[in-house]
Amino acid sequence: MSDLRTDIRTAADAAVLEARVLAAAARTIRLLPAILATTNPLDALARLRFEPIGHHPIQDRALNVVEQLNQTFTCLASLRAAAWILSRHPECSPLRLNLGTASGSDIEAVDGSLAAETFAAVTPTNNDKLRGDIRKVSQTTARLKYVFYLCPQHAPSEPSPARERPDVKVVSLGWVSTVAELPDAPAR
């Protein structure tokens, strides 16, 4: 993902960006039936992996579908974490979201009072991601330190202190299907 920084002040700001993420997903989903119907299986997978037929979740540019998948859920984790933070710590507004390769914590209060790392994974322990993010955010000087994650198999949770760094709070954002919110989404 390219360097993308954006400041948000309210949960409504996060919702606007999430709508862009969902719209990009809808545009790509509409392309898939034709791709899958007209090629052999390996060619279809190769197109999804290598051709820029997907859409960046925030910026107006093409991506391969595999990269779109990764970036979509990373963006959703950051946006939902930002909304969570603003609902519980409105004094930390505005928040700076460092999406992609932007340096710094994934989410930072502009005044430096909060730092958070975010990710989406099948399980939070995949690739030691949770431990690595706890370590990274613990090294900041922020007063409030969080790690948020999206995981389909985990229910949303209240903050709990990280075992190895109790000053860092870990929060599962759970998983909320957004199919009903997608423009032109097929009924299930």
Summary, kept brief:
By secondary structure, the protein is α+β, with helices and mostly antiparallel strands. Helix content is 38%, strand content 22%. The strands form 2 sheets. It has a 7-stranded mixed β-sheet, sandwiched between helices. A two-stranded antiparallel sheet has the order 2-3.
Characteristic terms for this protein:
alpha+beta; two-stranded antiparallel ribbon; 188 residues; 4 helices
Task: Look at the helices and sheets and give the structural class.
Answer: alpha+beta
Output the helix-strand order: EHHEEHEEEHEEE
The shape is globular
Largest sheet: 7 strands, mixed
Alpha plus pi helix count: 4
Radius of gyration, CA atoms, in whole angstroms: 17 Å
Q: What proportion of the residues form beta strands (DSSP E)?
A: 15-25%
Helicity level: 25-40%
* Total count of strands: 9
User: Quick check: average pLDDT?
Assistant: 89
Strand order of the largest sheet: 1-4-5-6-7-9-8
Task: Please report the distance between the alpha carbons of the first and last residues.
Answer: 31 Å
The unreliable regions are 179-188
